[in-house]
Amino acid sequence: MDPGPALVSILRQGSTLIASIHTALDDSQLTRFQQDLIEQIGMRRSRGVIIDVAALDVLDSFGLRTLRDIAEMARLRGATTVIVGIQPDVALAMVELGLGTGAVRTALDLEEGLAYLDLVTGATKHPDHSVSPWP
């Protein structure tokens, strides 16, 4: 039986893990994603983590709390986390509901997330080191 398309992919680029969420996840899938990603950080000795949420058109409070928890667990394991790809409608809803990412860094897209991690951790090797999303 075909399990269907992957809900999340976790790829490695240098010492950075890039986790792309491809579709909305229920609470148990989010918890599993959290466990898998934290395990991968240790196994691959990652210094940076990017969580790409560009495919999501909604992000509820449990999902956001899980992402913040992932970032804190990653920090405790020595990795810096950046959430990328928050869609405009999702950002608007988050602000209206009083939800935020806390201390977790965000970036517009994968390229800016990689550039930020390169600046703070040297975790990736980027061909264009002049890209800086922050002054």
Commentary on this structure:
By secondary structure, the protein is α/β, with parallel strands linked by helices. Helices cover 41% and strands 19% of the residues. Strands 1-2-3-4-5 form a five-stranded mixed β-sheet, sandwiched between helices. The radius of gyration is 14 Å and the shape is globular. The termini are far apart. The C terminus is likely disordered.
Fold topology:
Layout: E1 8-13, E2 16-21, H1 27-44, E3 48-52, H2 61-76, E4 80-84, H3 88-96, E5 105-107, H4 110-121
Parallel strand pairs: 2-3, 3-4, 4-5
Antiparallel strand pairs: 1-2
Helix pairs in contact: 1-2
Summarize the structure.
This protein has four helices and five strands. By secondary structure, the chain is of the alpha/beta class. The C terminus is likely disordered.
Shape: globular
Strand portion? 15-25%
Query: What is the spatial order of strands in the main beta sheet?
Result: 1-2-3-4-5
**Stretches where pLDDT falls below 50 for ≥5 residues?**
126-135
How much is the average pLDDT? 89
Supply the number of helical segments.
Answer: 4
| Structural category | alpha/beta
- The string of secondary-structure elements, in order, is EEHEHEHEH
N- and C-termini, Cα separation: 51 Å
Alpha carbon gyration radius: 14 Å
Q: The biggest beta sheet, please?
A: 5 strands, mixed
Helix percentage: 40-55%
What is the number of E strands?
5
